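[Discussion] Sanity-checking designs against the backbone

I'm trying to build intuition for which residues belong where. Below is a structure token string of 446 positions. I'd appreciate it if someone posts a full sequence so I can compare it with mine line by line.
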């Protein structure tokens, strides 16, 4: 996702919105227990074929390119599982993009569970320079805790086989790790594993869902974000403080050893925030509404996490895509993120970084009883407060046109000055400081 250096709303002239297209709808070959999208099939009763038709594809590609005011137009394909449509569908999509590019450069991003990737997929993705997001939740036991197939069988080995296809064909990829109740307790194990398998670009996405005490409207199992019905947090959801500790543990290793070597999305976004820039990640912006989702049949929704009848803006086969994006309903949706922020959050010392995070997670009450507190609040406070001195240092380096990676020797020196003889060595060796770097430091001073 590219950086947006302004705060213009979709209704503004020239705003470049983003659509997450789901050409296979909610259909998937896996049955991940925490997946919030599988049940969206119930929103389309009687539908047998969830594959995007040629007519919808043509209309979408043409109207999306026309509506963008930039020399580079970025498409994002997700699901469900988009590889179920086969390489042929995306060959059509690329040809369609070429017909309507009108001098623009086209980019494609593609999110997949990796299970169906083979040599043909690898060759196609490399030829057309797709950026692939591969879903993997950590080492075998953590990945397979929830990511299983329709028969309940583990998927770890098949995902790694897909990863090897991408690496063999030198396809650009990043990893998307859902942070859930199980892997959140093993942050360094997850982070080091991702590095070991060759991931240099990592996304950590917290999963938070609620299960209503009584059946939700439309027969859905998971509760709508804005619902005030009685509900319990799903057992696979990450716990608030644990999510903050997960991010903090990874950050502490990254800031000492891996800056400019491994790229973690939330750390990059945090640096944008400390630089006073508009964050690339929508959940931390003051307002939202520029990241929409489109179903297989052309139905456009306010957001990937708001695919509900109440948030359906219309269909691109009936109304122009740009007009749906700029509709009053979507303008209100985007502004509500800021307008509904509780006073408790407005007065918070990390509000500049968090901005209440995603409205989907705002179902708690503040200490003074006001609705709208984010479920993950405790975790974000812990994380953002912890990284503050490091982010200040890196931001200062950037402003002086020096590399942020200078933070690593600064942190290590800071650690040496505060470490006790019997503390774990700051270098991460696992040995006591007195039996590791302290000896070398003393030798260097004599």
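Best answer:
Here's mine. Compare freely.
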């Amino acid at each position: 996702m590219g950086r947006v250096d302004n705060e213009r709303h979709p209704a503004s002239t020239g705003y470049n919105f983003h659509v997450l297209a789901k050409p296979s709808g909610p259909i998937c070959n896996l049955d991940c227990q925490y997946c919030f999208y599988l049940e969206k099939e119930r929103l389309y009763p009687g539908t047998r074929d969830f594959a995007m038709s040629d007519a919808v594809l043509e209309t979408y590609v043409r109207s999306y390119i026309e509506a963008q005011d930039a020399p580079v137009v970025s498409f994002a394909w997700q699901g469900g599982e988009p590889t179920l449509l086969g390489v042929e569908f995306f060959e059509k999509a690329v040809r369609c993009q070429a017909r309507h590019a009108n001098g623009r450069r086209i980019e494609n991003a593609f999110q997949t569970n990796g299970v169906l990737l083979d040599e043909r997929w690898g060759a196609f993705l490399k030829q057309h320079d797709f950026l692939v997001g591969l879903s993997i939740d950590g080492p075998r036991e953590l990945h397979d805790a929830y990511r299983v197939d329709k028969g309940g069988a583990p998927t770890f080995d098949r995902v790694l086989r897909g990863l090897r296809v991408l690496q063999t064909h030198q396809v650009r990829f990043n990893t998307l790790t859902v942070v859930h109740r199980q892997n959140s307790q093993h942050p360094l194990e997850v982070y080091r594993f991702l590095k070991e398998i060759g991931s240099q670009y990592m996304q950590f996405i917290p999963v938070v869902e609620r299960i209503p005490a009584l059946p939700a409207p439309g027969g859905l199992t998971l509760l709508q974000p804005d619902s005030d019905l009685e509900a319990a947090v799903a057992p696979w959801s990450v716990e608030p403080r644990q999510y903050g500790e997960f991010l903090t543990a990874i950050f502490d290793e990254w800031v000492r050893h891996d800056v400019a070597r491994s790229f973690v999305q939330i750390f990059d976004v945090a640096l944008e925030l400390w630089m006073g820039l508009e964050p690339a990640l929508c959940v931390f912006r003051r307002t939202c509404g520029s990241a929409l989702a489109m179903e297989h049949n052309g139905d456009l929704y306010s957001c990937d996490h708001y695919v509900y009848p109440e948030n359906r803006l219309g269909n691109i086969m009936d109304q122009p895509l740009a007009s749906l994006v700029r509709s009053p309903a979507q303008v209100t949706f985007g502004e509500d993120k800021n307008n509904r922020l509780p006073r408790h959050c407005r007065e918070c010392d990390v509000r500049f970084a968090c901005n209440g995070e995603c409205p989907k997670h705002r179902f708690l009450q503040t200490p003074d009883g006001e609705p709208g507190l984010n479920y993950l609040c405790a975790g974000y406070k812990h994380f953002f407060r912890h990284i503050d001195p490091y982010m200040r240092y890196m931001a200062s380096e950037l402003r002086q046109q020096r590399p942020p990676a200078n933070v690593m020797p600064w942190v290590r020196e800071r650690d040496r000055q505060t470490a006790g003889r019997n503390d774990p060595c700051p270098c991460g060796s696992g040995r006591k400081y007195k039996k590791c770097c302290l000896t070398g430091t003393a030798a260097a001073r004599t």
